[in-house]
C-alpha cells in the first residue's frame, strides 16, 4: 500500500511546482521531500519526477498519482468533517426501541426535545418487548433501549440509566362504589371480578399477582384483554376491574376512573434507558438519554 505521507509530498510538488515550495508548504526540508518522493518511486515502481531546467516536473505516472492523491486527501478531509459532525450529534442516526406504553407516553416528548437540540440527527423508533430490545441492543441493531424492569439490573456489560418507577393504578367504572375514594386499598376489591391483561407476561404478571396475594385474595378473572385500551373498555362495560400501569393511562375513557392504590399494596415496574458502553459518551446517545430523563421527571411531577 502506498504511504499517505509520501503521496502528500508528491501532491505538494504538483500543487506548488517545485520541491522547495512543497517543503515550505509542508514544513519539511527540501531533502526530506526528495527522500519521500524517491521512496514513493520505489513503492510504485515508477519514475514520478524528471528534471526540467533548474527544477522538476511530474512524469505521466507522477501526474496520475498526484491526481489520485488529491482526491484521496479531499475524501479524508470530508471524512474528518463528517466525523466531527457525527461526534457533535449534527449528523448520523439514532435507533431506539421501547415497550409500547413508554413509546406512547414517555418517548415522544423526549424525542421532541432531542430533535430541538440535534435537528440533523435521523431518529427511528420501534416497539419491542424488553427482552427483544436488549437482544437487539447487544447485536448492535439499535442504540438505546427503553425497557421495563422488575428485578435488579446490571452486571451484563450494558449501561443502565433509571428513568422512573411506574406505579400501577386501579381502573374502575365511573359509578363504582370505590370510585368515591381518593385512594383504594386493594383488599377492599377482593369480591370483584377482574380483567386479565394478555400483554402481561413473565415478571409483569407475577408482579400484579403478588399484589393480590399481599392483599389476601386470589382474583377472579372473567376475560382477557390483549392491550391496555381494550381493558378500559371491559371495565367501562362493568365486566370487572383492572390494574394498569400509569404509563398506559395517558388517555382515559370518560366512563372509567383511575385511583391510586395504597403504597404498601401498589405493584410497580422500573423503567430504564439502556445502551452499550461504546455509545454511552457519544453526543447523540447522551442527549437522547438526558431527554428521556427530563421527560420522565415531568411525567412523575404530572
TrEMBL record:
Domain HTH lysR-type as annotated: residue spans: 2-59
A molecular function (GO) term: DNA-binding transcription factor activity
Entry keyword set: DNA-binding, Transcription, Transcription regulation
GO CC annotations, alphabetized: protein-DNA complex
PROSITE patterns xref list: HTH_LYSR
Transmembrane segments: none
Signal peptide: none
Family: Belongs to the LysR transcriptional regulatory family.
Protein name: DNA-binding transcriptional LysR family regulator
Protein species of origin: Solirubrobacter pauli
Amino acid at each position: 500500500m502506498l504511504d499517505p505521507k509520501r503521496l502528500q509530498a508528491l501532491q505538494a510538488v504538483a500543487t506548488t511546482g517545485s520541491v522547495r515550495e512543497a517543503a515550505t508548504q509542508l514544513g519539511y526540508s527540501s531533502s526530506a521531500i526528495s527522500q519521500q518522493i524517491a521512496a514513493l518511486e520505489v513503492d510504485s515502481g515508477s519514475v514520478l519526477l524528471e528534471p526540467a531546467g533548474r527544477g522538476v516536473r511530474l512524469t505521466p505516472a507522477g501526474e496520475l498519482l498526484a491526481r489520485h492523491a488529491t482526491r484521496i486527501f479531499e475524501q479524508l478531509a470530508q471524512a474528518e468533517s463528517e466525523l466531527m459532525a457525527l461526534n457533535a450529534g449534527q449528523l448520523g442516526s439514532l435507533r431506539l426501541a421501547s415497550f409500547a406504553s413508554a413509546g406512547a407516553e414517555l418517548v415522544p416528548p423526549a424525542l421532541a426535545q432531542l430533535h430541538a437540540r440535534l435537528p440533523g440527527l435521523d431518529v427511528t423508533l420501534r416497539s419491542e418487548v424488553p427482552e427483544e430490545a436488549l437482544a437487539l441492543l447487544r447485536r448492535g441493531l439499535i442504540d438505546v433501549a427503553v425497557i421495563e424492569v422488575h428485578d435488579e439490573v446490571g452486571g451484563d456489560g450494558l449501561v443502565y440509566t433509571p428513568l422512573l418507577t411506574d406505579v400501577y393504578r386501579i381502573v374502575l367504572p365511573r359509578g363504582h362504589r370505590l370510585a368515591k375514594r381518593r385512594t383504594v386499598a386493594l383488599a377492599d376489591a377482593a369480591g370483584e371480578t377482574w380483567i386479565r391483561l394478555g400483554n402481561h407476561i413473565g415478571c409483569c404478571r407475577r408482579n400484579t399477582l403478588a399484589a393480590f396475594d399481599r392483599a389476601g385474595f386470589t382474583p377472579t378473572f372473567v376475560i382477557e384483554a390483549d392491550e391496555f385500551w381494550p381493558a378500559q373498555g371491559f371495565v367501562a362495560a362493568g365486566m370487572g376491574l383492572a390494574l394498569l400501569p400509569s404509563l398506559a393511562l395517558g388517555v382515559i375513557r370518560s366512563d372509567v376512573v383511575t385511583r391510586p392504590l395504597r403504597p404498601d399494596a401498589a405493584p410497580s415496574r422500573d423503567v430504564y434507558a439502556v445502551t452499550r458502553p461504546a455509545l454511552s459518551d457519544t453526543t447523540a446517545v447522551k442527549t437522547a438519554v438526558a431527554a428521556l430523563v427530563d421527560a420522565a421527571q415531568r411525567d412523575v411531577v404530572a
